[in-house]
Structures are given as structure tokens and as C-alpha cells.
Amino acid sequence: MASADELTTGEWIRALLEPGQLLAAAMSNYVRVSFEAVFQRGQVLAPLFKTDKLRDESFARFWVKFTSNREQALKNSEPPTPNNNEPQSAPPRALMSSDLIPPILAKAFGIVLDVGPGTGTQMPLLLSPAIKAIYGAEPCVGLHKELRARAQAEGLSDKYHILPCSVVAADLVPELQKQDLMPVASQGIFDTIVCVRVLCSVPDMEKTVGELYGLLRPGGQLLITEHVVNPWRTAKGSVGARVMQGLYEMLGWRFFMGDCCMDRDTEAVLRKVAEKDGGWESVELDRYFGRTCMPYIAGTLVKKST
User: Fold this and answer.
1) Of the ranges 59-63, 69-73, 294-298, the best mean pLDDT one
2) Which SUPFAM superfamilies does this entry report, sorted A to Z (predicted)?
3) Would the pTM of this model clear 0.85, i.e. be above it?
4) What whole-number distance in Å separates Cα of residue 118 and Cα of residue 138?
């Protein structure tokens, strides 16, 4: 199969339709949970007055199933085969988004904040002895059982700490204080912050990224693997894919997919957040899957040491 930026026409069409399959599955879960609430639990008005609760429950079910199906692909993910004909600076080829994650998370060290870990699919990639402790901020309580079981299975019960909150400062800081982690002005807390498919769903990305930046210690690193808006105005983008992103948003992608947004320019926000300090020490971000509805950026941003 060709790389995601060299798709055949048939592969490109399938790539455009794949998010529709995910959306249909998420919708089905929501309908099922709503029926259970009304006809099994007797909560007749739940679809009207407990929408958020039903959304959380249905998305948790969907995400557990989805991540379990993708887990094997992540475990089998191998570093791309080097091509001696390509310059050393060329980004590695990848066939799916899970291929991007292992080489990025291999860089994690010190005290780590795992943003929105879900069921902990990437936890097997955080076993390095260079990591002292991991704090997983997961607001969806319905995923905590799976997350806790994964930590135990990976031998991280003593190292992985689940925080029942989002990474919005008002929610996160009190939970960090319970862990005896107190943010210190200009000093930060974390050596590594991991963001894997999460910045698409935070309520205010600019504010959240700014708060995460403040939690990084000088010299700390932000490890990123995020899907973004299609760069349709560039040679690497696709007008058709951008149109399909808009269509999926109109059909309820954000509602049924845990507030996920397809149209965020995450790279621009990440680069801008460090401008007050004269920029990042270094930025290594590559783009992938530019012709699809799920183009990705992946790489590392390092905060200035002083």
C-alpha cells in the first residue's frame, strides 16, 4: 500500500469515507444508550435533560471498543524502513496514525503528564526507566476502569496516577495539589507532556495549550500526535477532504465523538504559545496524511531552558 500522501484514487475515497463509519458507530452507541436509559432504567426524560451524561456513557462505550480494535495495530507498529535514497531530514513514512506514536513517546522522560489517555492504549509505550511518574488527566470517568486495569497490566500501578479531570487549570490544579504537585510560577511541574489525539476536543484550545505550556518546566518537552484541519490551500492538502471535514461536522461529529473537532489549526496555536518567551527552544513537527479527512501533525516542541 502507498503511503497516506500517495494514495490511489480508491484508497483516497476509502480514506474520505472512513470517518463516516466511525461517526455511524458513535451515533449507534448513543441511540442504544438512550434506549437503555428510557426503557430499562425508566429515565424517560433522560434524552432531554441528561444529554451530557448519555453522551459521556455512549462515547465511553464507543471509545473502549474502538481502541481495543486499534490496539493490536499499535502493538505491531514498527519503525518505518529507512530509505537510503531519501535525505536524512525527510520525515518517516507512515501508513496509519498509530505508526506516528511510538517514536514520539519514546522521547518521554521525568515527570510526565498524559493528557486525555482514554483507555491507556499508548501506556505500553511509556515504560521507559527514564520516566519517574505519570499523571493521566482523564475527565471521562467511564474510561477509568479500563485505564486502571491497563496500568496494572503494564506494571505501572505505582507509577501511573489517574487524575479525574480535564487539563483546564481550574480542574487540573486542585487534582495536582492532591498529589502534592504544586505549580510554581515560571518553573512548571512536568518534564514531558503527552498529547495524543486530545487537543481536538478541549473546549478552548488556545487557553488549554497556554496552560499546558505553563506546566512545562524549562527544557521540558511537549510530545504531539494530533489530527488537524486539512491544509487544503497548500500542495499537500485536498479541497475534497476539507469539504468532507465540514460535512462530518454538520452531521454531528463533534456531538457524538466526545467534542472532537476536525477543523483546528493546532500547529499554529502550538507555535504561537511560546512567543512571549521568544519562541520554543526547538520545534520538530512533521505533517502526514494531507489528502485525507484526518491529516496529522506529529513531533516534539521543547521549551527554552532560560
Assistant:
1) 294-298
2) S-adenosyl-L-methionine-dependent methyltransferases
3) yes
4) 6
294 contacts 97 by C-beta, under 8 angstroms: yes
Residues 157-191 have pLDDT tens digits of 999 999 999 998 889 989 998 988 876 656 889 99
pLDDT tens track for 80-123: 444 445 444 444 556 788 899 999 999 999 999 999 999 999 99
Taking every pair of Cα atoms in the chain, the longest distance, rounded to a whole number of angstroms, is 65
- Under 8 Å between Cβ of 242 and 294: no
According to DSSP, residue 2 is labeled -
- 3-class SS of residue 292: coil
Nearest to 140 by CA among 224, 260, 42, 23: 260
Alpha-carbon distance of 84 to 100, in angstroms, equals 20
Chain-wide mean pLDDT for the chain? 89
Partners of 114 in the beta sheet? 136, 194
Q: In Å, how far are 36, 92, 149 from 226, measured between CA atoms?
A: 34, 16, 25
Beta strand ranges found along the chain (DSSP E): 110-115, 131-137, 160-163, 190-196, 216-227, 282-288, 296-302
Q: Which of 257, 253, 256 is nearest to 244 (CA)?
A: 253
pLDDT at 182: 74
Beta-bridge mates of residue 137: 115, 163
Burial profile 273-286: b = 16 or more Cβ within 10 angstroms, e = fewer: bbeeeeebbebebe
Q: Is 74 left (phi over 0), alpha (psi -120 to 50) or beta?
A: alpha
